[in-house]
Amino acid sequence: MKSMDIRRAGTKILPVAFLAGILLVWEVCGRAGLLNPLFFPVPSYIFMTSLTMLAEGEIQANLSITLIRVFAGFLIGAVTGLVVGVCMGVSERVRLFIDPVIAATYPIPKLAIFPLLMIIFGIGELSKIMVIAIGCFFIIVINTMAGVRNINRVYFEVAKNYGASRFKVFSRVVIPASLPMIFTSIRLAIGMSLILVVGVEFLSANKGLGAMIWFAWETFEIQKLYVGIFICALLGIFFTVVLKRLEEKAVPWFGYLAHQDQE
User: Fold this and answer.
1) Residue ranges per structural domain of the chain
2) How far is 150 from 30, CA to CA, in rounded Å?
3) CB 235 within 8 A of CB 194
């Protein structure tokens, strides 16, 4: 048990130590004049700039708007993606009908359809939210369908032998067995939502992290540009950690099997 606890602690410490090492090398090389300060300001200067931006409320104002767009788009895309993905996984008729549409539309870059969405939904918030929702939808529907289709057929036979109703088969077999893939799709979708929100804020927004980064580039305030990039990275780490904790609570047997494999 002690060796296992040490191994778990090491898996948590090593990534932090690695990132800290990168920042330390960056700081040393910058102060030694090995890096151009115009393009690579030292991390300590970027940190001080972030404190100034926090004191002025610039980060909070832009971050709150970006998070609202992310959560709204993610929620719409996740709910619809889960429903459609489960239906496609359970029903072959539904899959044969919808699968060609998804195969044709999924490869289209989501930012490429943003102008069309602005024509349909206007230049306000709804078009930005919808492009995020569409990006999340495809990731979740594909992974959810795969998770349902990969369920071992033995589970369905056992449920049938015990006389389980369709609802019980759905609630006791389909959903629990596909949860690992669903959580994987959610983690991918939340990352995609961050990518898309920054992209649409580059194109059509006055507020948000993407707009803040773009304005920093236009005014050549490189340290603010790095602040925006680091905030996006921290959001990605935060969402990943939170979703992994939720997955451990919702799918405890999956985490147990993973630890058994590591041993």
Assistant:
1) 1-40, 57-262
2) 51
3) yes
Exposed e or buried b per residue across 53-75, where buried means at least 16 C-beta atoms within 10 angstroms of its C-beta: beeeeebeebbebbeebbebbbe
pLDDT (tens digit, 9 = 90+) per residue, 26-72? 889 888 888 888 888 889 899 999 999 999 999 999 999 999 999 99
| 120 within 8 A of 63, measured Cβ to Cβ | no
Helices of type H across 122-170: 125-149, 153-161, 166-169
Name every residue whose Cβ is closer than 8 Å to that of residue 162 and which is 6 or more positions away in sequence. none
Residue 213 confidence (pLDDT): 93
H helices of the chain, where? 2-31, 43-56, 58-90, 92-105, 114-121, 125-149, 153-161, 166-169, 175-203, 209-218, 222-250, 252-262
Closest C-alpha among 102, 140, 126, 94 to residue 200: 126
> Looking up tokens 């596909």, which residue turns up?
178
Evaluated on CA atoms 52, 54, 58, 63, the torsion sign reads: positive
Nearest-angstrom CA–CA distance, 188 and 210 = 20
- Which single residue is written with the structure tokens 């100034």? 52
Spell out the CATH class of 57-262: mainly alpha
Q: What is the pLDDT of residue 181?
A: 87
CA distance 110 to 173: 34
- Kindly calculate the radius of gyration of the chain based on its CA atoms and give it in whole angstroms: 22
Vertex 169 angle, CA 165 and 175, to 5°: 150
Cα 197 from chain centre: 11
- pLDDT tens by residue, 161-192: 777 777 777 777 777 888 888 888 999 999 99
